[in-house]
């Protein structure tokens, strides 16, 4: 135990026994009620209070659920309740272990919250029966802390994110304590293993506290856990190494454990308060130092309090207690008896009154109102969310008098807007990025954000351009998992954020995106009581097309494919073609709620096309004809040249410029797509164009050359039902590249101007005769461009540079 | 420093200075040669040995590369060389820090290996000039340890996998030492953070050693690293907590550092040998205990030995030395001078002879032949790979006399084959799975594998069904990242493996898959000197359709979309419809090389269709008509019912059974797809069907109802160019589901028999009149099925069960 807690320990009353006999009795009774409800929801569909002898027909037909961590989690919960009441704590609880929802559900029910949210699950025998039956039952609720679970901001269907979610919740919530129960299974995952370092990014002055409780119950589905099988010294070293002050609570005798836990948990709360008080009462100008925050290691048996043995095999304290400790009570009368005996060991008749409600003296053990953990508004963050105050994005517009004349970095322009957005939301907006904010040309945000958050050691040289500070609001750590976890936790508790990352490495969080999108869909479509939360805004930059020196490993635009597999109700993809469009899209995304907005925009210098007014119009429509690049003047064109993405747009325009010069009578329509889902049928995505609209843009029968940012197949996936789809010829990334100049990389994948012009010539019948010479010239340009690049290491200015003709 | 190393330290000669003055001079000179080459490749395209004054035209036009970790890595390398020679070590080197390839490249060049592999990069002035120019240059090589780099098995384009790759290399290679340099940037990633625990899975008797060297040079692109800014005590605690014995080498004075490093590294080698000797000489039957393996923390300045300052800013030892320390030597004459002075500080004239070759006395410092790190055959694992010895998979066949009569778990059948495959390859085959091998019904493998690898603490109760042992060959840890990393390292060094995982969570390794597929593509298509390695065999099981109790978070079949974005040269996807097909596919995959084979097969009980002979024929073709289910008898059918995936096949057959009974005159053709890429055009994938073949299966104009395992859009993606594509009506997963029975989940996503039959009725014009009644009945079945499930928690036997009519 730490020195700090040892000292605090001196206060302990009753000779090291913080609980009086009466308190102990009541705490234990409340815990038994939790445990009873957990077993009930795992097994019963009738006879919820066992008021008649247990029979096979009371048992669910299919037994699906997990007992393993439930009693340990409920044990933690009852001790949290005690301290919430004693110290009026504002506290939420994140359940890390997979499938441990019964602990949260039973507590929510006992607190009365569950019945408030779902009135048919009332606090009586009838309600309890429904409450039991629905669990892990077809048409009912899952065995994770799904969105349906009051008080949950962390489902944990996939493991590894509890702690980063917890930190996200704590940032900028100075009075909040976020308890995170970390399962020793999930502790083996990579994302969890590095998220312990989040304590280097938590400022005790402005942020709340995270109290991690490593629940070391020893087993996963079928194996012991690593952390349960290293030496106690190693375990302590590890957490001290991670910068925490570990407190161990270990044992299996409930009475002893209650006293231990009551003492340790109270010590931890006092330590947290002492750390905060010290940091917050320091003289103005004092830089807070990184404290060693307390954490708890709870070593309790897997499936604690279930039968010790079954058929001669160890049950409590073994992997056999991970899921259903008794597998066949319906068919095995002996096991049915065992189950009944087990359930009765909690003495339900002492805990619930005649009506089936928790008895009054235990009811009093729970906090009241919004202090009840499952009623805490931080866990239904939309309730607390206020829209961002935003500057007028038009004030950051690039002055574009004529299209295609000036070059600028789009992300740099956006960054100025974000910097001032930051200044207006200094307690409710954060920017996230894996060591790449500056690399992504967003560093001007630091001017508005007090730089980057850094609670680890500072060195004198950091003053020279390090941009680090204790108050920094840009979060950078080289872990996309941790950042995404922080971000999700931050928005789930009612705030706003913005994440930028290299395109190819956004795949690292594919699965986190999937899980969050699923959470959002359920919350949005099925749960009216969950108020809308801010969107996850994900800027994908350092794009595949500008990874010329990073090479093949950094080329992968496939995240968009992953996104399009998720529900149209919660996914949005934007490919703004220039800086003013990016501003318009950025503003829109920051105002939105309940989406994952994916924005694709490069950081390098690019030509600009639309003035602010036109950009807003274009982005509002999401797709449109660019008149300046078209010469079909209201007639049917010979060909449609379409594009989505800034670099493909630049190449497509260059192709048009070439064709307009060399094939002057060719009637070209130029279509640009910002909002990718406009391509989908309106029946399949709320943003989809109607057939009529789509045909009016793309014609019913003319060739369409579509230059796309990502894999070409994605455009086909979105458009295959369209009338003119068979004339769609799509270019995109096709896994060609290594170390190349920008133009050479475009050429390798045939999204370059020359190949596009050839595509047009090949698809407009009359050009095949008239433009044969042009085609030869185009092929020559391609060869010349590659040769020049290999000789000089850069693109030929002459070949590559172009401006739209004024 | 550990006690062990302190004791060994007593041996140190020359009063704590392990190197004689002469050795020190030569070690340092060799290191200077490395550093000189590193700077050369970053900057120069001409004048490689600075034999004329440095001018702007000698400098590359675009400066792209990273200096930061190069000198530290070369420093490690020269000390490894010393010990390889002294102790005749079999040793490879994995470079973890991103973009640190110059260190490996320069050493490969000095060892002579580079010129052997690439003769035009000869060991003379002309060769050196080419060697410099190609680096990070269009058409040249990348700045990571790409496949083109001799001695590399770890590219590190994406960070986080160096240590797990290293362990994979060490398993079953008892004499090998795998040095893994871990960057302090990558150390922040989740995958790296948990991979330190790999030491709980390494057996000192049968496995080699991993010597991690945490290279703490303090900075990432734009930030300090977390591990460099915690206290030295925390750092030591952390690694002791992870189970390592850390040795610190810290400083910046080269002479002092050489002595320190020589001593510490020799201590580490001796510790490794002592651990191995103790474990290997123990009396037979002694269980080896988990040792505390040594690791090194090298704290050296970022960009060590570059200029201390530039324009008044700190350079060496700051983030400014991460990439190019001097940014503008071409345009800034002062900086050009600074660069020249820097390069000359290494005294190239003392290091290279007139011809440009390393002088003989330094040449002698490197090991010779295959002991040269970059010539070690373990790093070109295909050279060492022997095909697996496999039992005849036909011996494990399920006896299928008639299709659709018996139910069995396909993965359980496969497991028996894998068990015996394991027995025949007890030093070159491992099975990987995240705590799910048993859950995935593969546990019979334990019978052949000595159970599961476990070097952490054992408890008495483990004897009761724990299946853990020191010799276990099934690897389970709850980290998909670690497992995939181990697996990749294992096959990259010439061995074989098999990975099973829950379908939805395979997305966790999306990005690792991408990186490995890219590595394979380059190796296979462009590098003849790299011998083929075994395929990554990835069994996706616990499928979306049988996640009925895990719910919505566990439903995601989108990994296949990610796979189809990668090169057709290295990707294969198989969806065997039953156990015999799974056996045939499994055998094929284990024999293959240079692919990622993705196999989709469920673990639950399923109907069986093909006898072994038919299964082999069917899988060899990859796609085919199932005669028993078809009644078109050589004529054009009214409808094609196609399917891919075991569960969709089962539902599609049930639909056929219904239609055959109720619409007797309907001519149905039944097509099953095992090899998904057969659907692609032959021009785009080596497995693609020709147009003629495709049309002969799917007709040119009849409706095709395609029941697909994953997202329907993937079938469209693969088939949109096909003649009959517009008549393809594909059913697949569409993000509908929660807690459902199997049939209910199928119904929600409309892949069930009833909806398929309705689809057929809706698409065959004449049925719309005649089958109206049947359609009503089908709709009624759907409602009845869902109602039954919600009432009883299971599917109605009557509605769900069926057999193919005999």
Structure overview:
Chains A, B: It is an enzyme of class 4 (lyase). 2 copies of one chain form a homodimer. Chain A has 3 domains: 3-24 and 63-120 and 138-280 and 292-306 and 360-378, 3-Layer(aba) Sandwich (Rossmann fold); 393-606, Thiamin diphosphate (ThDP)-binding fold, Pyr/PP domains (Rossmann fold), CATH 3.40.50.970; 622-800, Rossmann fold. Chain A is 38% helix and 12% strand. Chain A contains 28 helices and 22 strands. A 6-stranded parallel beta sheet of chain A has the order 12-9-13-14-16-15, sandwiched between helices. In chain A, strands 1-2-3-5-4 form a 5-stranded parallel beta sheet, with helices on both faces. In chain A, strands 18-20-19-21-22 form a 5-stranded mixed beta sheet, sandwiched between helices. In chain A, helix 2 crosses helix 4, helix 2 packs across helix 6 (125-134) and helix 21 crosses helix 25. At the A-B interface, helix 8, helix 9, strand 7, helix 17 and helix 18 of A face helix 8, helix 9, strand 7, helix 17 and helix 18 of B.
Distance between the termini of chain A: 75 Å
Low-pLDDT windows of residues of chain A: 1-14
Number of helices of chain A: 28
Query: In terms of structural class, how would the helical and strand content of chain A be classed?
Result: alpha/beta
The overall pLDDT average of chain A reads: 95
Which radius of gyration of chain A do the C-alpha atoms yield?
A: 30 Å
Keywords:
elongated, 28 helices, five-stranded parallel beta sheet, alpha/beta, Transketo_C/PFOR_II (chains A, B), Rossmann fold, 806 residues, six-stranded parallel beta sheet, 22 strands, homodimer, disordered N terminus
């Amino acid at each position: 135990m730490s020195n700090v807690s040892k000292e605090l320990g001196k206060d302990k009353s009753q000779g090291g026994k913080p609980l009086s006999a009466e308190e102990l009795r009541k705490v234990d009774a409340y815990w038994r009620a939790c445990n009873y409800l957990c077993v009930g929801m795992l097994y019963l569909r009738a006879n919820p209070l066992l008021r008649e002898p247990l029979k096979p027909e009371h048992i669910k037909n299919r037994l699906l659920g997990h007992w393993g961590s439930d009693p340990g989690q409920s044990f933690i919960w009852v001790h949290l309740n005690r301290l919430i009441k004693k110290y009026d704590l504002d506290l939420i609880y994140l359940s890390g272990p997979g499938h441990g929802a019964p602990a949260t559900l039973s507590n929510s029910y006992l607190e009365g919250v569950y019945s408030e949210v779902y009135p048919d699950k009332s606090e009586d025998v009838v309600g309890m029966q429904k409450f039991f039956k629905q669990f892990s039952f077809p048409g009912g609720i899952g065995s994770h802390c799904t969105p349906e679970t009051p008080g949950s901001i962390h489902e944990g269907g996939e493991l590894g994110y509890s702690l980063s979610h917890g930190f996200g919740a704590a940032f900028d919530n100075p009075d909040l304590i976020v308890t995170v129960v970390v399962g020793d299974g999930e502790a083996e995952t990579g994302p969890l293993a590095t998220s312990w370092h989040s304590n280097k990014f938590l400022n005790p002055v402005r942020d709340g506290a995270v109290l991690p409780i490593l629940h070391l119950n020893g087993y996963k589905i079928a194996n012991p856990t690593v952390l349960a099988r290293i030496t106690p010294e190693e375990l302590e070293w590890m957490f001290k190494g991670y910068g925490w002050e570990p407190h161990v609570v270990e044992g299996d005798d409930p009475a002893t454990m209650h006293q231990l836990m009551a003492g340790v948990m109270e010590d931890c709360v006092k330590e947290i308060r002492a750390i905060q008080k010290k940091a917050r009462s320091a003289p103005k100008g004092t830089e807070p130092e990184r404290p060693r925050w307390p954490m708890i290691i709870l070593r309790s048996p897997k499936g604690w309090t279930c039968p010790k043995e079954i058929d001669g095999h160890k049950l409590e304290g073994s992997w056999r207690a991970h899921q259903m400790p008794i597998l066949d009570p319906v068919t095995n009368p002996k096991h049915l008896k065992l189950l009944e005996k087990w359930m009765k060991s909690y003495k339900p008749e002492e805990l619930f009154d005649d009506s089936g409600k928790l008895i009054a003296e235990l009811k009093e053990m729970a906090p009241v109102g919004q202090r009840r953990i499952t009623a805490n508004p931080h866990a239904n963050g939309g309730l607390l969310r206020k829209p961002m105050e935003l500057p007028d994005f038009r004030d950051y517009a690039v002055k574009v008098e004529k299209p295609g004349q000036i070059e600028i970095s789009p992300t740099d322009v956006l960054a100025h807007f974000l910097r001032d957005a930051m200044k207006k939301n200094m307690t409710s907006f954060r920017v996230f990025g894996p060591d790449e904010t500056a690399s992504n040309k967003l560093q001007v945000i630091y001017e508005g954000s007090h730089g980057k958050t850094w609670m680890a050691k500072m060195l004198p040289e950091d003053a020279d351009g390090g941009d680090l500070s204790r108050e920094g609001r840009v979060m950078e750590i080289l872990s996309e998992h941790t950042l995404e976890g922080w971000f999700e936790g931050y928005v789930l508790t009612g705030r706003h954020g913005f994440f930028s990352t290299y395109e190819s490495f956004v795949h690292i969080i594919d699965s986190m995106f999937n899980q969050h999108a699923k959470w959002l869909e359920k919350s949005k479509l099925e749960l009216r009581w969950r108020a809308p939360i801010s969107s996850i805004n994900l800027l994908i930059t350092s794009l595949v097309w500008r990874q010329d020196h990073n090479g093949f490993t950094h080329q992968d635009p496939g995240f968009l494919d992953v996104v399009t597999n998720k529900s149209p109700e919660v996914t949005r993809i934007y490919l703004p073609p220039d800086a003013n469009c990016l501003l318009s899209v950025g503003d829109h995304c920051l105002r939105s709620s309940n989406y994952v907005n994916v924005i694709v925009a490069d950081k390098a210098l690019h030509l600009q096309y639309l003035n602010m007014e036109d950009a807003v119009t274009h982005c509002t429509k999401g797709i449109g004809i660019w008149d300046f690049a078209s010469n079909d003047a209201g007639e049917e064109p010979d060909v449609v040249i379409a594009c989505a993405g800034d670099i493909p747009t630049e190449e497509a325009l260059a192709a048009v410029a070439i064709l307009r010069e060399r094939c002057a009578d060719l009637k070209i329509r130029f279509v640009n797509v910002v909002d990718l889902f406009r391509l989908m049928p309106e029946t399949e995505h709320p943003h989809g164009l109607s057939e009529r609209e789509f045909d009016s843009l793309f014609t019913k029968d003319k060739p369409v050359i579509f230059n796309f940012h990502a894999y070409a197949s994605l455009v086909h996936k979105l458009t295959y039902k369209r009338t003119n789809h068979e004339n769609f010829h799509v270019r995109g990334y096709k896994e060609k590249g290594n170390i190349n100049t920008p133009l050479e990389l475009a050429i390798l994948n045939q999204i370059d101007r020359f190949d596009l012009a050839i595509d047009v010539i090949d698809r407009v019948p009359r050009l095949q005769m008239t433009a044969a010479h042009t085609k030869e010239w185009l092929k020559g340009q391609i060869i010349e461009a590659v040769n020049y690049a290999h000789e000089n290491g850069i693109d030929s200015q002459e070949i590559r540079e172009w401006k739209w003709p004024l």
